[in-house]
Amino acid sequence: MTSDRYDTSGNLEAQFEPGSNDSVLKNKLGIQSAAEMDEVELDLLIQLYDAVPDQVEADQTLSSADIKEWHRRWLGNVYAWAGQYRSVNMGKGDFHFAAAAQIDRLMGELDKRFLARYTPCAGMTDEQLVEAIATVHIELILIHPFREGNGRLSRLLANVMVMQANRPELDFSLWDEQKARYFSAIRAGLDDYEPMKALVRQVLPGAGKHEDD
What we know:
Layout: H1 34-55, H2 64-75, E1 91-92, E2 95-96, H3 103-118, H4 126-143, H5 150-164, H6 173-177, H7 179-188, H8 194-203
Antiparallel strand pairs: 1-2
């Protein structure tokens, strides 16, 4: 997942836990097993998912500061850099996410251009909510602000948005089953939100009932 264009020696975010065969990032718990780390991260994420919706108001405009705080709360006991924007460049295959040096500026743009426009979600129609979730999800994933956990936090954000709109929690299992289609929608999101909107309709109860997808 990582493509470092510059020398990252000495950068904690670029280091792996000794004995993990470069499969687990350097962590506070000394965990060397990828399976064990997955379990720890999942347990902590479930706790965050349980807590956050009760702490967000239906009429609250969400912000990059909220997202950073969620990341810190989730992984703060695991990684020294939790709650901080990444300082290494990252990509998936030949696709590069935002350059690390641009993340502060881009997250400020996320606040002004997208979160301020699309949240709070109270009172939205299904199609307005689909547009809001798809747009914010695309923009956040393309920035990829953190060293670890971007996709999972983006899903949490989507669920907070549906909570504001008084809709049931989203089931993302379809996205997990169609990973190639999902990532294709992310890439398309550089200039076209429609593929991601189609995926959101499929996981938002009722929103995709007229779609033949």
